[in-house]
Amino acid sequence: MQVWRRLGVLDLADLPPSYNANPMRYIALAAGGDVTLRTARPSVEDSRAAGAADLGSLLPVPQDTLIGITASGRTPYVLGALQSARAHGLLTVGLVHTRASTVVREGQCDYVLECPVGPEVISGSTRLKSGTATKMILNMISTALQIKLGNTYGNRMIDVHPSNVKFASRARGIIRDLAGQVAGSRAEAYSGGLTHDELDGVIARCGGSVKLAVVVVASGWGVPLCVDALERRGGSLREVLEDVRYETVVRVFV
Questions:
Q1: Please, are residues 83 and 52 in contact by the beta-carbon 8 Å criterion?
Q2: Distance between CA atoms of 23 and 6, rounded to whole angstroms?
Q3: Which of 118, 142, 222, 232 has a CA between 20 and 30 Å from the CA of residue 150?
Q4: Which of 154, 159, 135, 201 is nearest to 22 (CA)?
Q5: Where does the SIS domain lie (predicted)?
Q6: How many structural domains does the chain have?
């Protein structure tokens, strides 16, 4: 998924640490390159050719999706990228904040998300209402995608990458909470008796995968068996934990 405009860069930047997402699958481009993230250069948005060239440099394939973000619905850079994406067979989506826009008239999008926000408090300052609406919509899209991919369990980020103190603490809490919900799982998981070091050791044995560590602690199975269980269930932690519950019931009552 490629997303244009600085807010697109901001939205995608959080996916790898929060969901252990492959950064090569979520690519954000801004007209003029990364330097424009700190210093605005409005003129770089005026080239259709630049948008098409930047898209082409990624070697897109028909399995890719492009979301073109333009509050006015007429930014040349975005229009050029959408046209190029359509020529490469990508699924194309336009995100605009006005009706009857150029994005709609040119017909380069499979879907257009129109979110009219009305005149800005400061006329033409699209970083205000348009920017806020854009961020909210991108949050919905990227979060729904991660849920669909099975990277969440309830409201927990089960594929969080424990790369710093905050995320490591979150990972331990997720393992304790979810493993403790499985009837018959090990007493340490219920009581929270596993120490930080012990939980960190489990995560390390699981190659940093919090999802896999949940299965290991909840089931008491070895890592290879837990890997196989997740693979058989298409990576769905919910389904694997149901298997663990069933296995526990059978073991206790049969």
A1: yes
A2: 17
A3: 222
A4: 159
A5: 1-151
A6: 2
Cα 9 → chain centroid? 12
pLDDT score for 180: 83
For 71-86, b/e burial (b = at least 16 CB within 10 A) is: bbbebbbbbbbbbbbb
Residue 153 forms part of a structural domain: no
User: What's the CATH code of the domain at 232?
Assistant: 1.10.8.1080
Model pTM?
0.82
The answer to whether residues 77 and 106 belong to one domain is yes
* Structure tokens, 181: 């919900």
Domain edge (last residue) among 148, 174, 199:
148
Q: Are residues 34 and 73 in the same domain?
A: yes
**235: containing domain:** 165-253
Closest by CA position to 2, among listed 51, 73, 43: 51
Task: Please say whether the beta carbons of 30 and 36 come within 8 A.
Answer: yes
Q: What is the DSSP string of 60-89?
A: --TT-EEEEE-SSS--HHHHHHHHHHHHTT
Residue 123, judged by CB atoms within 10 A of its CB (0-12, 13-18, 19+), counts as exposed
